[in-house]
Structures are given as C-alpha cells and as structure tokens.
Write a structure and sequence with these properties.
Largest sheet: 2 strands, parallel
Structural class: mainly alpha
Shape: globular
Number of helices: 21
Order of helices and strands: HHHHHHHHHEHHHHHHHHHHEHH
Strand content: under 5%
Helix content: over 70%
C-alpha cells in the first residue's frame, strides 16, 4: 500500500538553471529573428501588391529578381503566411509554457524543429526564386510547381507539428508533479492550439505527401484538382486559427497585466480556446461554396458550422473588453468610456495589441460575410478576401507579435527597447495603413475587383474602363499599403536597434503573466475542458463526419488533370 501511495505522490520538479534558461531564450530569439526577417521580405513585396491595385505596375523595374506579379504574390503569401507565422509561433508556444511551468523543454527537439523548418524554407524559396513555382500560397493544382517548392513546404508543415511533442511532454511532467490540478492557462492554450494544428495539418499534409510531392517528382502524370483543393482547405481554414490563437495567448494571459489589471476569467479563456479547437476544423469547405462536386446540402451544413465560430470570438470580445475596462478603471478611468483613455497608450506593446483588437472587430465582421453561403457569392475571389486577411492575420497575428516583441526582445537579450516612441509610431502607422487597405479593399471587392489579378499590367484605358468607377478605393489600397510599409520600416529600425544595442543592467523584462479575478481552481468549466486527449478525439470524429461525405464522391469519381505551367 505504501508503494502505491508513493507512486501517486507529487514529484519534485527540477527547476532550470540560469544557463538552461539562457539557452531557451537563445532558441526563441533564433525562431523570432528568422520569422521576422521573412516577414520583412514579405512586407517589401506586399507593397508591390498595393501599388498594383492602384494602377502602378512596378514589376518591370524589378527584373530579373521578380519576373511577374504572380511570382511576387507567391513570395508574399508564403513568407508571410507560412514562414513568418510558423517560426514565430513554434518558438513562442514552446518557450512560454516552459517559463510558466518552470520546466526545461526538450531543447534537442526544439532545435531540430528549427533546422527542419529552415531547410524546408530554403527549399521552397529556391522553388519560388527561380520562378518555377508561381502557384501562390494556396498551391492550387493543376498549376504545377517544382519539387523543391512542394517538398520544402512539406518539411515546414511537418516541423511545425513537433512543438506539440515538446509542450505535451512538459505538461505531462507537470501533471505528474501536481496530480488533480488543472493545467496552467498559458500551457493549456498552447497545447490546445498545437493539438488543433495537428488535426488541421492532416489535410495539407495528405495533399502534399500523396498528391503534390509525387506529381512534382514525376512519379504520377496527373492530379485531381478538386481533391487537392479540398484537402488544402481542410487545413486552409483552421490554419487561420493557428495564426490567431498564439496572439490570443498574449491577449488573454499577458496583456491584462501589461494594461495594469487582471484577466476577468481564466475558465472563459479556456472555453474560448476549446471552442476554437472544436469549431475550426470541420468547416474548411466554406471556402468552396462555388466549387462543383460538393453537395449543396453539405454546403448548407458547413455554413451553419462556420457561423458557430463566432461564439468563441464573442466570448473573447466580452472577456478581453471587460479585462481592459477593469485595468482602465484601476488606473483612474471614470464614466462610461473613461477607462479607455486611461489605458497605457504610451506603452507601444499595449497600444499595438489593443489596436489589433480594434481592427479585429472589422475583420471578424467581414468574416461573417465570407462564412455565409449566399453573401459569399457576392465577394468570392474578389479583393474583399485579402482585405479580410489583412484585418485579421495582418493585425491579430502580425501587429500583436510586433507589440509582443517590444517587451520580448528586452526579455530575451537584456537590451532596452531602442526607441519606444518610434516603436509606438510604427505600430500606429501599421494600424492606420492596414485599416485603410482593409476597408478600401472591402469596398473594391464589393464592386467586383478581383483578387490575385495583375491589373496594373493592363493598358491604362482598359484598366480605367474596368475599374474606373472604383478607382478611388484602389488608390486608397495603394496609400494604405504605403503607410503600412512606412510603419514596418520604423518597426524594423526598433527591432534591429534593440537586437544590436548594448546590454544594460536592469534592462531585462520579466514575462508579464497575468493574475485572474476568477481563477481556474474550483471551476467545473475548467475541469470539463481539461482532458485534451478526449477533446482531440471528439474533434477528429466530428471532422471526419463532415468530410467523409465530401470526399467520397471525389474518391469514387476521380479527376485526372495534367499539370500546367503558365508563367
């Protein structure tokens, strides 16, 4: 009996040494510097996408580096949507739980993740740079890229799953040492995000390994475009939440303390992440409302399921707004909205994240249109769609991580933020620029301006004949892109100024883990959300229940299309 009791007793956990923590900081810094360098290149090319819609064709001046708008757009999408996000998220979701749990992560696996991800990035970059793979980030077959590109993207996706092993192993160690307790919030959110991504990556992973990779290597002569497209969107919708949820980690678990308050409810944060996990997976076919080969009944079901994703978004809006109001009132805010002005707006980290939340209100509202079968027919494949992305991923991922870096770089390097005023100005310019871009892009999209179109290459008379009535909106797209680019320049001055500045005593910033007004202890909701293995199984079963009827007609009536290279 005593042996049994001793096996179940709490176990002491080895606290990492200062040297080990320094190694973990180096790991995260390496991930983030690589990701933000990729973002810098993506933003520079993105400026060309803005001028394109304003009617300025700058691509002929960039020969032979960029040979076409479509090569540039492929670089822009892959570097921003895959490379920047995968590197920053992978490092972030391994480091924060380690510091919250005060455990040492598996550093060998962390560095292997980085190496594999870097190798895949370089392979994909080679396939884009030689203009053999201008297939955009969606990789729609039967447009055919090179094996370098597809194999490289495959490696990046595989590597992005490995942080899950690191986080789950730390969580298991902590659970053994703390039996009966719920997982601390940051670790819970990190594990939930990565488990969601594990299931999400099955779609694009299957597409890459069984369709795109063999096809590009010449092992098969044809490909099924509809099957490939459907597998992509199995991943392509939940990947948006893989981009957003790591930003939510900061918004929920760090921002309230930075703003001078506390998180209103730990259990509500867990509920929001759990619902994002469950609701985000089985709805990818809402990106295929106009595609043939998918039953209208299934499209109707997916419409209802997609709209359910608004529930965790509304929970987030309520919880974070109340937490920020609490912070503002603690700082002396009175009246209906006096708390808003009392938030620490001079802190560039807080300002950037709160501005991202403001932009996300508009991005989320536009997402309701995308999710609605009837309304989507109006804006499908128009400039509305990238405008929506710029107000969501461009804000809730990029601007939040920009804001996080204003305290994270000093935390990782022991160097003070080089120019807080410049950092604040850059954050505001990024916000103003992308808001201008996003709102003008929505306007142009409702007038039918297409996405993914090299409109500036048209003769001027033809361009004005097609888009003259909406030209003011397109000019605003160009202006917004220019303002955002200026904000990015200021951001990188601060980024590299901090990175290469002098170390100073007292410059080290601690991670601002928040406190809670309503903690998880004693919460039935937190207990229900705790068994992540069970919730993963439930989500997988729901996803299969939705997708098997979608895939069955495609598998029994395959399409055999040859590849096309149109550039």
């Amino acid at each position: 009996m005593s042996a049994v009791l001793s096996n179940n007793a709490p176990r002491a956990l080895a606290v990492p040494t200062a040297g080990e923590i320094a190694g973990e900081k180096k790991m995260l810094l390496t991930f983030w510097v690589t990701g933000f360098v990729a973002l810098a290149v993506g933003i520079a090319i993105g400026a060309l996408q803005s001028t394109n819609y304003a009617g300025l064709n700058l691509y002929p001046y960039l020969q032979p580096f960029l040979k076409s708008y479509y090569q540039g757009l492929t670089f822009h999408g892959v570097l921003n949507a895959y490379v920047f996000t995968f590197f920053t998220i992978s490092g972030w979701l391994m480091y924060l739980p380690a510091r919250e749990l005060k455990l040492k992560p598996n550093m060998g696996l962390a560095w292997f993740t980085y190496a594999l991800m870097l190798l895949g990035t370089l392979m994909a970059a080679y396939g884009m740079f030689d203009n053999s793979s201008s297939v955009l980030y969606t990789m729609y077959a039967p447009l055919k890229g090179s094996a370098w590109f597809y194999l490289g993207v495959t490696l990046v996706v595989v590597a992005s799953i490995l942080p899950l092993i690191v986080v789950l192993e730390m969580r298991a160690r902590w659970k053994r040492a703390n039996p009966g307790q719920v997982t601390p919030l940051v670790t819970y959110m990190s594990a939930t995000t990565l488990l969601m991504w594990l299931l999400a990556a099955l779609g694009a992973g299957t597409e890459a390994v069984f369709l795109l990779d063999p096809w590009s290597l010449g092992l098969t002569n044809t490909i099924d475009p509809l099957l490939a497209r459907t597998l992509f969107w199995w991943t392509g919708h939940p990947i948006v939440y893989y981009w957003l949820m790591p930003g939510y980690v900061s918004i929920y678990a760090l921002l309230p303390r930075q703003a001078g308050g506390k998180l209103i409810s730990d259990p509500l944060a867990r509920l929001a992440f759990l619902l994002l996990f469950v609701f985000s997976l089985p709805v990818g076919t809402h990106h295929q409302y106009t595609d043939p080969g998918i039953s209208p009944v299934l499209k109707g079901i997916v419409t209802a399921l997609t709209l359910s994703v608004a529930i965790p978004s509304l929970i987030t809006a309520f919880t974070i707004a109340l937490s920020l109001e609490y912070a503002g009132r603690r700082r002396g805010g009175t009246g209906l909205m006096g708390w808003w002005g009392k938030l620490p707006w001079k802190d560039p980290s807080v300002a950037a994240q709160v501005l991202a939340l403001v932009a996300f209100i508009f991005g989320g509202a536009g997402g309701i249109v995308n999710a609605s079968w009837q309304l989507d027919n109006v804006v499908h494949n128009t400039l509305w769609v990238p405008a929506h992305f710029h107000l969501t991923v461009g804000m809730m991922t990029t601007l939040v991580f920009m804001g996080v870096s204003f305290w994270l770089l000093p935390h990782l390097t022991g160097r003070k933020l080089s120019n807080p005023k410049l950092a604040l100005t850059g954050a505001w310019l990024w916000f103003i620029g992308l808001m201008t871009w996003g709102l003008a892009g929505h306007w142009a999209g409702m007038d039918g301006v297409p996405r993914r179109a090299w409109v500036a290459a048209l003769p001027h008379d033809q361009y004005m004949q097609l888009y003259g009535t909406v030209h003011p909106a397109l000019i605003l797209v160009g202006i917004g892109g220019g303002i955002a680019t200026l904000g990015a320049i200021l951001y990188y001055i601060v980024f590299f100024g901090t990175l290469f500045g002098k170390k100073e005593a007292g410059a080290m910033v601690e991670i601002p883990f928040t406190e809670f007004i309503t903690p998880a202890e004693g919460s039935a909701l937190a207990r229900v959300a705790e068994p992540l293995g069970l919730w993963t199984l439930i989500t997988f079963i729901i996803t299969l229940a939705v997708y098997i009827p979608v895939f069955w007609p495609m598998l029994t009536n395959p399409i055999h299309a040859p590849g096309f290279v149109l550039w």
